[in-house]
Amino acid sequence: APLPQVLTPVYPSTAGVSQAYLRKAIENALERTPLPELLPPEIERAYLKPLDVPSLADAVRILHHPRVDSDEAALMDGSHPAWTRIKFEELLAQQLSLKRAHEERRTRAAPAMPRRAASDADALTTRLYAALPFRLTGAQSRVVDEIAHDLTLAHPMQRLLQGDVGSGKTVVAALAAAQAIDAGYQAALMAPTEILAEQHARKLRGWLEPLGVSVAWLAGSLKAKDKRAAIEAAALGTAQLVIGTHAIIQDSVEFARLGLVIVDEQHRFGVEQRLALRAKAANAADGAQGFQPHQLMMSATPIPRTLAMTYYADLEVSTIDELPPGRTPVLTRLVGDARRDEVIARVREAALTGRQVYWVCPLIEESETLQLQTAVETYETLAAALPELKVGLVHGRLSPADKAAVMDAFTRNEVQLLVATTVIEVGVDVPNASLMVIEHAERFGLAQLHQLRGRVGRGTAASVCVLLYTGPLSIAGRERLKTMRETTDGFEIARRDLEIRGPGEFLGARQSGAAMLRFANLETDGWLIEPAREAAARLIAGYPEVVTQHLARWLGAREQYLKA
Known about the structure:
Blueprint: H1 19-32, H2 41-48, H3 56-64, H4 72-77, H5 81-106, H6 124-131, H7 138-151, E1 158-163, H8 169-182, E2 186-190, H9 194-208, E3 215-218, H10 224-236, E4 241-244, E5 258-264, H11 271-282, E6 294-299, H12 305-309, E7 316-320, E8 331-336, H13 340-352, E9 356-360, H14 375-385, E10 391-394, H15 400-411, E11 417-420, E12 433-438, H16 446-453, E13 464-469, H17 475-486, H18 490-501, H19 503-507, H20 529-542, H21 544-554
Parallel strand pairs: 1-6, 1-7, 2-4, 2-5, 3-4, 5-6, 8-13, 9-11, 9-12, 10-11, 12-13
């Protein structure tokens, strides 16, 4: 018999399912599924012809049954034209669904919030500017203008505000809230942890309460009486700004006129949580039924360009790309665990010169496999080694009240050395802290290390971050520590983080909603994003029925997630 002209496929199999059965089932599916070309000829000419790729049906056939003389390496590494066709189609589906979500959002109604003139002495925004003890950087002013413009429109803003650690996002949020309050609406700010939410509350209260704004605080740890009072203030509209954790999205919480929702560290909230807060405004009690609030999401993890163009293509993005003046860059030192005593001596020295120190240890549970010291043990060891210092301990198992008490003592410089787990990762702001030690730094992800390091260098003193590590290091571990030593630029760190981890992990909670890419790889196939974007824009403008067919083929029912 003549030899077959095509290779026999071997599929990833599951116990109990034979290759023969799988091949037959897939063969059946291929025969029953015609894959007609959906794209109009002008789009094919403009975008597919230059790529020199086969039809979709041929591409699928080639990948399942490559000819004996095919370029095996290209089939394996994903560079074969058949793969290129599949990847382009997938990226096109992703662009279409995000663009469609974006267009659809423009048809919804939101409260228009006029921006009061800077010369209007009564405007809350004017009074807030005048009361701030510092001037905004150029980047902050630009971003404030972008957000202010969006708030004047009658369709919901959905803007992502990204800025490196310490770039001053909270004041931008305060000015956005002030514009909403000026227009007679309420604003809500939700943060992922109580420590972070409380930090925001302290800053925002300090700026806004002297100007007559009523700020309510809502968190899980509140006493029942206080919680009831906060919920009532939100519902009656007497609270103009409500700050809290995800307690804000509980069913019992209602708002009178919620016009602006600010979500900090938005990637830590699932899609459902963000949707829940938005739904609150749609049910607001002032008869403005069906209104959607404007939404501002903040992130201190900058998003590399390829991700911004794909997973975040439905959002407007504002970037604060300069730090406030007077910040000193943090020096980063890598130190092996064998030199731990030197590090402890360094801590003593810093504390005795009036500075404060963070000592970060990962994980509380005694985990055999990771051999990490527990926070409690570290605290006891350091307290014994440094009897002349007041040492504090904060970890996730403390009650919120105890946690707040320790953080307050540290803020007031009653505690010189704070031993902490990663609960201090975001938002903690103590300008007098100028030394941070991170134990087992090799166990942390890059974004997390960068966040932690951002807790020092917030004042004028030269600050140092010591990364204590235990060898031998994995290749990825070594890469991460090297990156930390080489740069303090959050965007560069985010780019390298994406390289090391890939988009799936990088995206965190967002990935549960976004159509995850199965075939295209943002690192190697980034060059396909631009043509897919352009093609998507032309299809949406001129071929709505093709858009529907293409999305049905690629996404089916997964599309509603992209609305979040």
